[in-house]
Design brief:
The protein is of the alpha/beta class and about 450 residues long. The chain folds into three domains: about 90 residues, Rossmann fold, CATH 3.40.50; about 210 residues, Mur-like, catalytic domain (UDP-N-acetylmuramoyl-L-alanine:D-glutamate ligase), CATH 3.40.1190; about 130 residues, Alpha-Beta Complex (Protein-Tyrosine Phosphatase, Chain A), CATH 3.90.190. It has 17 helices and 20 strands. A nine-stranded mixed beta sheet has the order 7-8-6-9-10-11-12-13-14, covered by helices on one side. It has a six-stranded mixed beta sheet with strand order 15-16-20-17-18-19, sandwiched between helices. A five-stranded parallel beta sheet has the order 3-2-1-4-5. Helix 1 runs parallel beside helix 7, helix 13 runs parallel beside helix 14 and helix 16 crosses helix 17. The longest helix is centred in the middle third of the chain and has 16 residues. The chain is globular and about 70 Å long.
Length: about 450
């Protein structure tokens, strides 16, 4: 009899898993408590995959051999608790995809900030080096869908802590851990240590043939590493010290020492500017070196990479005011990085769904660089009460258009309007991309 796989959630990861599972002979049933987007519904119908929307058939779900849970569904969900109580294994999409990757290699990137940039840069380096590669995970298609529809020799995967929570055997050949700051604490009972452990699951199955690329300047990472026995090859990177193996920046030069190959490059040749991007560039370059990509190709790719949409993306200059779209900054730490790179007086657009944010992190930068805050959200009370003594002007707006218009009025020639919300987007927008696009459209209408 075919193994019964229940998939909770019919988004990209759920449908990707369904397609691969169907191909591999599973008895598949997809259950989504909400509405399913038409494009995904059509795919399920076209592939004769049974599904339900708007409710869950609990009895049928609890008869599963295995459950694949979409990363957006928390463990404290009542249905998930019932599944665990019955002893039914609950896995994530990257775990399911891993079973069918064949001999392909995996480079997996995680961290609280910089994941998408580093993933995209590593993918770009691999493309320049003409590797048979796909970028999957939180950007692009799901890992499972890519394996089902267009398998590659190498997968560059952006993975979140939620995806790592549901792994059993998933093992990347190259694991990158960029940094760990307080994010998503609402999913970890506000216990930071649980979130840290989730991030470190990226290396729990690694062996002596694999690589672990990590930021040695991050105290949370280095302290946790002291508690672990690891089997992997560590390749740290740093801007504060020279490392024997890995990478570091000294006198504005990036130095990589992996195997025999040595790579040096001036940071002034990096396409990505700013201190945080120097870390991201080192991480991606070290990973490329472990893949045997020649240093000429790494240099070429690192110097001609274009930044991502919604991540410190320059939109336009309107009457001397620069507009920057950093909608992907969904936590306070990301906003800290954005503010740290601001050289001009800034009108900051903040707000959305708060995930247990500690705004103290950005308080000093706000005092130093921000002349006004525009709160863009349905509930702005936490932001307004925290910043009321720190900036002269705080205005509330309940749409991107109103926020842009208000920010433009507050800005003077030579100022920057920065959308870097520090919050999730689901109160007013579909997702952070929708928020960023609406922001950009509103700027173009000025």
């Amino acid at each position: 009899m075919a193994k019964k796989l229940i998939i909770l959630g019919a988004g990209e990861s759920g449908v990707g898993t369904a397609l691969l599972a169907k191909q591999k002979g599973y008895d598949v049933f997809v259950s989504d408590g909400g509405a399913i987007q038409p494009v995904f519904q059509k795919e399920l119908e076209d592939n004769h995959i049974e599904f339900e929307a708007g409710s869950h058939s609990v009895e049928r779900i609890l008869a599963a051999d295995e459950v694949m849970k979409s990363p957006g569904i928390p463990d404290k969900n009542e249905l998930v608790k019932a599944i665990h109580a019955k002893g039914i294994p609950v896995i994530s999409e990257i775990e399911f995809g891993y079973r069918y990757k064949g001999n392909s290699k995996i480079a997996a990137i995680t961290g609280s900030n910089g994941k998408t940039t580093t993933t995209s840069l590593l993918y770009h380096i691999c493309q320049v080096a003409e590797q048979d590669v796909a970028v999957v995970g939180n950007i692009g298609f799901s890992f499972a869908r890519q394996i089902a529809q267009d398998p590659k020799a190498l997968y560059v995967i952006e993975v979140s802590s939620f995806q790592l929570d549901g792994i059993v055997s998933f093992k990347p050949d190259i694991a990158i851990l960029l940094n760990i700051t307080e994010d998503h604490l609402d999913r970890y009972n506000y216990e930071f240590e649980r979130y840290v452990k989730s991030k470190f699951r990226i290396i729990e199955n690694q062996t002596a043939n694999d690589y672990f690329i990590y930021c040695i300047d991050d105290e949370v990472i280095t302290k946790h590493l002291e508690l672990l026995t690891t089997n992997t090859n560590p390749l740290p990177f740093s801007m504060k010290q020279e490392v024997k193996k890995g990478g570091y920046i000294k006198n504005d030069q990036m130095m990589l020492k992996i195997q025999e190959e040595r790579v040096t490059m001036s940071i002034y040749d990096f396409a990505l500017k700013g201190k945080h991007n120097a870390y991201n560039t080192m991480a991606a370059s070290i990973a490329a070196s472990t893949l045997g990509i020649r240093k000429e190709k790494i240099r070429e790719a690192v110097s001609n990479f274009h930044n991502l949409e919604h991540r410190m993306e320059f939109v336009a200059t309107v009457r001397g005011v620069d507009f920057i779209n950093d909608s992907k900054a969904t936590n306070v730490n990301s906003t800290w990085y954005a503010l740290e790179s601001m050289q001009k007086s800034t009108v900051l657009v903040l707000g959305g769904v708060d995930k247990g944010n500690d705004y103290e992190l950005i308080a000093d930068l706000v005092k130093e660089k921000v002349k006004a805050i525009v709160c863009m959200g349905t509930d702005n009370e936490k932001i307004t009460s925290f910043f009321k003594d720190k900036v002269a002007t705080i205005i509330e707006a309940d749409s991107a258009k109103k926020a842009v218009n208000a920010a433009f009025k507050l800005a003077e020639k030579g100022d920057v309007v920065l959308l870097s919300p520090a919050c999730a987007s689901f109160d007013l927008f579909k997702n952070y991309e929708d928020r960023g696009r609406q922001f950009k459209e509103s700027v173009k209408e000025l």
